[in-house]
Design brief:
Elements: H1 3-17, H2 21-42, E1 49-53, H3 60-65, E2 71-76, H4 79-91, E3 97-101, E4 114-117, H5 124-134, E5 140-146, E6 166-169, E7 175-181
Parallel strand pairs: 1-2, 1-4, 2-3, 4-5
Antiparallel strand pairs: 5-7, 6-7
The structure holds S-adenosylmethionine.
S-adenosylmethionine binds at residues 10-11, 14, 53-56, 58-61, 75-78, 81, 103-105, 118, 120-122, 127.
């Protein structure tokens, strides 16, 4: 299975789960602890505006964070995921999440305090270059780092165009570390 197959599988899996609200809730619970660890690590504030690049059909990270920050914009470059994600946000009656059909390589990231990138958001270094050129210097960037067994499918830390970062261990199925850095820590292309 190559990288794109893995991405499509995760994406496909979420598209199935989202059809049954109970499954979506169990999916959210599965990730809750890891996302709350990310929230604590990043020191997110209630007035923060967050951009999540690649939310999928079940934007569980944004849903879990929605009562902890001011507003979250979730983007995805897959139209079907965007439509399904809009439905689940309405189902949970969450009114501080906006879902947009956009690509992380070209989105305007300048109005956000925090930017999240999940494992599947690609191409990582092009997304980072876009962030570096447009964000203010204090924007926090959070990224999940794949476990060794998954580095074949998701960009490993050594291939990321970043100079410095802070890290925290988490225990999840596919990732075991989250890192945080600022636009100034991203290398020039
Ligand atoms: C399956 S989701 C995983 C995120 C997870 N649901 C969460 O809340 O943490 C990953 C999504 O990233 C999207 N994606 C990948 N690259 C992207 C890019 N450059 N811009 C926007 N979305 C992207 C894929 O379409 C996929 O739906």
């Amino acid at each position: 299975m190559d990288f794109w197959d893995i991405c499509k599988t995760t994406n496909f899996f979420e598209k199935i789960l989202v059809k049954v609200p109970l499954f979506s809730i169990l999916y959210l619970l599965f990730y809750k602890k890891a996302v709350e660890t990310e929230w604590e690590f990043a020191g997110l504030l209630t007035e923060d505006k967050v951009l999540f690049i690649g939310g999928g059909a079940i934007p569980y990270s944004a849903i879990i964070l929605s009562n902890k920050v001011k507003h979250i914009t979730v983007i995805d470059n897959d139209k079907k995921s965007v439509n399904l994600a809009k439905k689940i946000i309405n189902y949970f009656r969450i009114n501080n999440i906006t879902i947009n059909y956009e690509n992380g390589q070209y989105v305007n990231p300048k109005d956000y305090d925090v930017i999240f990138l999940p494992l599947q958001a690609q191409p990582k270094n092009k997304i980072l270059a876009n962030i570096k050129s447009h964000c203010h210097e204090n924007t926090k960037i959070l990224m999940r780092i794949p476990k060794k067994a998954f580095t074949k499918f998701y960009t490993p830390i050594k291939d990321l165009a970043i100079k410095n970062y802070k890290e925290k261990a988490v225990n999840q199925l596919t990732y075991n570390k989250i890192i945080m850095f600022y636009p100034g820590d991203i290398k020039n292309e």
